[in-house]
# Entry
Amino acid sequence: MKLQKIISRLQELHPKEIDLSLDRIQSLCKKFGNPQDKIKAISIVGTNGKYSTIQAMFSILKEANFNCNIYTSPHIKSINERFVFNNEELNDEDLANLLEEIEETNSGEPITFFEILTAAYFLKASQYPDNINLIESGLFFRFDATNILKNNLASVVTSIGLDHLDWLPENEQTVEKIIFEKTSSLLNSNIIVAKQSTNKIKENIKKTISNNRSNKFFHNENYSFTMQENDFFYYEDQFGGIKLPMPNVKGQFQLENISTAIATLRILKDLKIKDDHIKKGILKINCIARLQEIKSGKLKDLVKNHQLFVDGSHNPLGAKVLNEYLESLDCEKHIILGMMANKDHKEYMSFFKDIATLTTIDIPNQPNSIAGKELQDKLNGFENVNYKKSIEEAIKSIPVKENDIILITGSLYLAGEVLNLN
# Structure
């Protein structure tokens, strides 16, 4: 209750949810002696794959006996997920005390909620100067609150695509502008660029960071992986190759994220990451709502012996890689879809092929989501598109046959509701 009261107060400090500027976060952190200057960080920017790449690095680093701090957004089930220190989520009491300290020092000055959370993270992280910090950027990067570090160990650029276009001027809603926002202000250290959806995007990234003095590493140029038979894959970079078991997360796109995580940690030679740390770590990755199979719980009981997945993808690039996984399965696929109002709903769904049924739903507790009925009307070009009010009704309405799968997707907020409901 104390935590919720503090959160409610902090959300009232600024009229906007997002107000792209570094002035407020810099001013607040200065009052705390600039804690962000006292940490060892790996920064992760991009459109898709940030969370998965972080979780892969985290799992490998734990095998190598490192303590990590992690800052991610948004959260899926509870706000505590955003704050990991010494490999553990911060509990309610400690998080409430941390936010209270930030609130008192801020003294009612206008500041966005995300900026408050970021300052809180930096303050707490500075108490663990020897830990490795894995820091995910929020919207874009250039004016993101996480972009006040002076130094870092590395910057990871995950897959970049079109998303959050409503935060750009109409004449600048292009992937080139997004690349500029995400990569033009990266620090001079090491830059690891993950596999991109097109060569044009990769070349644009190269052009944008051409004057950056960092050591640069690109997927398929400086590191790569290949699928092999007998349930393993082969990773290779300038330090040699490793035969690796298939990880405990599903989808080709996860191999891309994992390979980028491996490349980053091997490039940082001082970490002394061994092959064995990697082999064991990739079998223990915890990716909430990223092609996550629900194996038990209330919603799983409704589907009985059928497979139930939840995935928080919400942009065209996410839909593309998700469909690639679905197409690798020899079964009928049923999608339950809920999305936020500001997304390109038709573009998102255009990537899915051979879907047996599509059921739109309302996202509970999200006033900024599109109503399920309206979403159904927008997607009336699809065969077998239905609308149901609730997640449970949608699941019950699907005519599943043997080996069919049900996938709930379209929004991280929906994924959170699904997991909490389950």
Observations:
- Residues 2-281 form a domain with the UDP-N-acetylmuramoyl-L-alanine:D-glutamate ligase fold (CATH 3.40.1190.10).
- The CA atoms of residues 41 and 208 lie 22 Å apart.
